């Protein structure tokens, strides 16, 4: 057989195609499977039809046809037999007889359905016939077959998957795609839920089937969460809302989200709300200045979650229930279903207040201290952040009497909140005040309850982080507050804020910061601390020893300290860089967050020292790193 094939290939190479066909046919008939006789090919199978109907070419080729020819037909993986058929098909291709070539390719497929030769041959000829999709399906069937085949007789078997993949590659991008709607409906819904709400509308124009399917009750979930993007091309019209909201099913939308840049008219917003009586969540990141929420109907008895932010300072400067003003009546009408933040929200774990509240009033929590035992027993995280006290539009200096009054009122409120459950449920406390107003929050001066003292009403046994980035506290008071958290080995993060002000008579620059740090001698070497913040220190200029610059050795005493947040308004950037160099050299830090690194004046020495010690310097341009929600 090998000699006959060799002779046929020589004839094919010299374009003697008819003589080549004779040699290849003789080689086929000399295979032991044919016993020297002419064998007919089964004509019952139609692989192209099977492929068009989504059937498996491989499974069809493996099965034995029950016809008379099929019963006598034998499988054969003789490589010479397969080569003879392959070359004969190539010869028919050269003669332009593609129908004959297809028959020989299918014959190979029936003889050895687990080998790649038939798939490669049939796919090649199908491509010549411009039947690219059929060719792609043939190659895919060959890949399916190769996964079930062991190393055997075909010389192409070792590299068959790669050959089939290479042959299929030019076609794969075109024909591997499936209509999304052919997937299970649950998966279709999940995919389309990833789109912005306004991106769904172009999908309805793909074809009639898409429009019919996506607007069917089966996919009503797609239309129940209405989210307008930050930069919509245009605002929705009332007539569009009347057409779209009913797609969500009875009761209309379940949630409505208006981003800070959403432009929506009063009529469109009213239409949207009226068509959604089963609304559960409403969020307006910035309520448009010309819009108000309905106040004349009690229409939304399932509304349970509301976020409404003012456009600029309009909640303070515009009367309630007016366009752009605070929607007081709307919220009162929905009060029966809303989750209240106090007693009706008993499992609250994380509370973040700010940054745009002008102040906090302590009256609600100061009226009855006995309620503390019942209020928010699971509260773990308490964060407060504000950049100003009072109305931003009516600017007042930070040291004005009115700002001082609002700041003290806010600190009093926070003192009460930190004493909930005697502070034992709290794991993280983070407060950020305007710098001038960051006086000690645990002070009891000017409290509404004069006899109230935080240290008498709180234990903080489970406190993990205590961060008051702008609040300077006396070290002895910090010790009283944190002693239990340190004893229970829970405290891992803390901020030290140094006192401000010029040196007093007889003192040198830096004495106050040195004395303040000495007050933390009890804190030195705490093994559980892995993150520290140091702010607004001022040590002696041109420090040459640890007495003049004690901060590096203080930080080096913490064996597990890995992260440092550091900045001081009392240093020029190059001078602060030298402090950082000293800190890096004597600690085992991995990460330093600093505003110094954001400055272009940073010298090369700091960069080089950080690289040498494996420390990552992370610049802080505006805000310090903040995690929300906090993972306990």
Automatic annotation (TrEMBL):
Regions that span the bilayer: none
Family matches, as InterPro entries: F-box-like_dom_sf, F-box_dom, TPR-like_helical_dom_sf, TPR_rpt
Recorded superkingdom: Eukaryota
UniProt domain F-box: residue ranges: 177-226
Cross-referenced Pfam families: F-box-like
Protein name from the UniProt record: F-box domain-containing protein
Organism: Claviceps purpurea (strain 20.1) (Ergot fungus)
Source species taxonomy: Eukaryota, Fungi, Dikarya, Ascomycota, Pezizomycotina
């Amino acid at each position: 057989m090998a000699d006959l094939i060799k002779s046929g290939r020589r004839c094919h190479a010299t374009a003697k195609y008819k003589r080549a066909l004779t040699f290849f046919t003789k080689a086929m008939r000399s295979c032991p499977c044919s016993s020297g006789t002419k064998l007919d090919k089964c004509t019952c199978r139609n692989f192209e039809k099977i492929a068009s109907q989504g059937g498996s070419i491989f499974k069809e080729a493996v099965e034995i046809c029950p016809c008379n020819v099929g019963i006598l037909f034998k499988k054969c993986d003789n490589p010479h037999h397969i080569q003879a058929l392959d070359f004969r098909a190539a010869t028919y291709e050269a003669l332009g007889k593609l129908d004959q070539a297809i028959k020989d390719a299918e014959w190979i497929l029936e003889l050895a359905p687990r080998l790649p030769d038939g798939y490669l041959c049939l796919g090649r000829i199908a491509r010549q016939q411009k039947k690219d999709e059929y060719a792609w399906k043939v190659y895919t069937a060959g890949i399916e077959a190769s996964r079930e085949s062991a190393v055997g007789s075909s010389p192409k078997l070792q590299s068959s998957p790669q050959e089939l993949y290479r042959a299929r590659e030019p076609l794969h991008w075109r024909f591997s795609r499936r209509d999304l709607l052919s997937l299970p409906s649950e998966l279709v819904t999940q995919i389309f839920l990833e789109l912005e709400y306004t991106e769904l509308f172009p999908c309805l124009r793909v074809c009639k089937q898409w429009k019919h399917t996506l607007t069917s009750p089966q996919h009503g979930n797609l239309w129940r969460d209405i989210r307008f993007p930050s930069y919509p091309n245009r605002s929705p019209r009332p007539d569009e809302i009347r057409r779209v909201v009913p797609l969500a099913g009875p009761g209309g939308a379940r949630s409505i989200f208006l981003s800070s840049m959403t432009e929506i008219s009063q009529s469109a917003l009213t239409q949207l709300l009226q068509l959604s009586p089963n609304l559960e969540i409403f969020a307006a990141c910035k309520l448009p200045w010309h819009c108000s929420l309905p106040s004349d109907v009690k229409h939304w008895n399932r509304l349970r979650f509301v976020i409404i932010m003012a456009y600029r300072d309009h909640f303070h400067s515009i009367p309630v229930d007016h366009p752009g003003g605070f929607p007081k009546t709307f919220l009162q009408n929905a009060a029966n279903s809303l989750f209240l933040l106090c007693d009706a929200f008993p499992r609250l774990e994380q509370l973040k207040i700010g940054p745009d509240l002008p102040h906090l009033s302590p009256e609600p929590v100061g009226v009855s201290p006995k309620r503390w035992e019942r209020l928010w027993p699971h509260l773990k995280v308490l964060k407060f952040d504000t950049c100003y006290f009072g109305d931003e539009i009516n600017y007042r200096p930070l040291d004005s009497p009115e700002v001082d009054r609002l700041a003290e009122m806010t600190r009093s409120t926070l003192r009460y909140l930190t004493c909930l459950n005697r502070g034992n449920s709290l794991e993280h406390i983070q407060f950020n005040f305007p710098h001038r107003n960051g006086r000690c929050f645990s002070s009891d001066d000017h409290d509404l309850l004069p006899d109230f003292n935080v240290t008498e009403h709180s234990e903080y046994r489970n406190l993990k982080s205590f961060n008051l980035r702008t609040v300077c506290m006396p070290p002895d008071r910090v010790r009283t507050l944190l002693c239990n958290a340190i004893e229970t080995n829970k405290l891992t993060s803390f901020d030290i804020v140094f006192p401000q002000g010029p040196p007093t008579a007889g003192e040198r620059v830096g004495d106050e910061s040195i004395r303040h740090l000495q007050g933390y001698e009890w804190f030195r070497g705490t093994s559980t601390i892995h993150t520290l913040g140091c702010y607004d220190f001022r040590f002696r200029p041109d420090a040459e020893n640890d007495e003049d610059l004690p901060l590096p050795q203080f930080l080096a005493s913490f064996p597990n300290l890995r992260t440092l947040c550091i900045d001081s308004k009392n240093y020029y950037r190059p001078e602060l860089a030298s402090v950082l160099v000293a800190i890096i050299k004597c600690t085992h830090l991995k990460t330093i967050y600093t505003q110094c690194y954001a400055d272009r004046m940073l010298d090369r020495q700091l960069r080089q020292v950080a690289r040498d010690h494996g420390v990552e310097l992370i610049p802080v341009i505006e805000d310090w790193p903040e995690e929300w929600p906090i993972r306990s």
